[in-house]
Amino acid sequence: MLPTTCEYCARKIRGPSARLVGLFLAIISLAGCCAPAPPKPELPPADLSFPAGTKTPERDDGRWLIGRMFQQWHSPGDVRSAETTLERRLAGGDTPEEALLWTFPNAGLWAYAQYGSWTTLQARIAGGCPVVAQETRVSPRTRRFVVVTGINTNADTITLIKGDGAVVTSDAALFRANWAQTRRWMMTVCPPDLAPWTMNSREMVSLTRFYDRTGRREEADRLAAAAVERDPRSAELLSALAMRARALGRIDQAEEGLRRALAENNNHARSANNLAFLLAEQGRSLDEAASLAQRAVLIEPGNPRILDTQGFVFMRQGNWNDAVRVLARAWRRSRSLSASARAEIGLHLAQAYLKNNEPRFAQETLSALLRENPGLLLPPELAALMENALQ
User: Fold this and answer.
1) Which fold does the domain 63-194 belong to in CATH?
2) How many H helices and E strands in the chain?
3) Pairing relation of β-strands 144-152 and 131-135?
4) Thinking of the domain 18-33+200-390, which architecture would CATH place it in?
5) What is the per-residue pLDDT across 99-110, written as a single tens digit (0 to 9) for each?
6) pTM summary value
């Protein structure tokens, strides 16, 4: 499996195994790159009004943020339609963070999440862009979204909008302590042409992919080229842009970018993993793919996406016994992944079990997958296996 290029949500480039599984898995990128920001037009004034009275659940699903951000940027998008998109993503197994990152671009707003810092937060606020953050005081179950709209460095206070619509001024030190419990998660949301700060590398690739997604391909290509010119030796950047090329069907460019990334950093696990998958899905250079996958596993032995890649390579080699062994590990470690990522691993495992003459285990895996995702589309061979099990 291709691991995410996103810093936060491990927002993966979801499975190139669509031919195998018949799934349409979304590409959500959240990586970025580094280039000087072009001059930005003046930002509209912040609209801090927000109807109070919305009661947030124990775990904030972020629904209220849609109306908040639409108001902030005077977005012409339909709030109810965006809320429906969010609800559908949540029902499909996305976390609130993943669902929001999918929903905002559909409404024309670029969204990027990262584990930031106080300095990063201050820079966005100073540029006139409110920032979505999280804070928690007891446990992850009490995690709440807030919108940071202002910071007073002299008084060391911070202005927040809460989920119930309340605008409060809080002690900045207290906020920082609560925010640290979320690893300083933050998300910027704004129109793509109004980002008023000099973006870091991951933000720039994220914006590149936003332009791809919204049909602005020439702008995306220019942004990607500027990023490489600015930071030509970053393996992280080169790998992210290589996977963008793969998503666009530019396979030769993707392979070149991944090899270039590995030339800069031979121990870059993501590049090794992605090149292994790229080669395996094309059914070529499988010995090299196996070597690359093994290197990635040695660097990140507990990463279920990287284990899935190794298992996929074994499948392409016809080594079903090793495929089952590795994919079973990936499956056990995939519980924290999104539903679509977990489905890809589970389908690989079921296929390997079936080819390894272990149909009962294949059925058990598929049964677990279908309980989690009743609408999951199975490839014909696995669908027939489940139909036979019901007879």
Assistant:
1) Cathepsin B; Chain A (3.90.70)
2) 17, 6
3) antiparallel
4) Alpha Horseshoe (1.25)
5) 999 999 988 999
6) 0.74
Q: Where in the chain is the domain with CATH 3.90.70.10?
A: 63-194
- Strand order through the sheet with 110-115: 110-115, 185-190, 131-135, 144-152, 157-161, 167-171
Residue 13 near residue 21, CB atoms below 8 Å:
no
User: What is the location of CATH 1.25.40.10 in the chain?
Assistant: 18-33+200-390
User: Any bridge partners for residue 188, and if so which?
Assistant: 112, 131
Give the closest residue to 299 by CA, choosing from 269, 320, 321, 323.
269
Residue 14 backbone dihedrals phi, psi, to 5 degrees: -80, 135
Give the whole-angstrom CA distance, residue 340 versus residue 344.
6
What are the distances in angstroms from CA 337 to CA 178, 303, 332? 25, 11, 11
Interatomic CA distance for residues 240 and 261, integer angstroms: 9
What ranges in 214-358 are assigned the alpha helix state H? 217-230, 235-247, 251-264, 269-282, 286-299, 304-317, 320-332, 339-355
Burial of 208 (0-12, 13-18, 19+ CB in 10 A): buried
Q: How does pLDDT run across 136-180, given as a tens digit for each residue?
A: 866 656 789 999 999 999 999 999 999 999 999 999 999 999 999
Residue type at 268? Answer: H
Q: Are 345 and 326 in contact (CB under 8 A)?
A: no
Structure tokens at 357: 């003459």
Spatial separation of the C-alpha atoms in residues 321 and 285, rounded to whole Å: 20
How far apart are alpha carbons 295 and 11 in whole angstroms? 22
| d(C-alpha 193, C-alpha 376), whole Å | 37
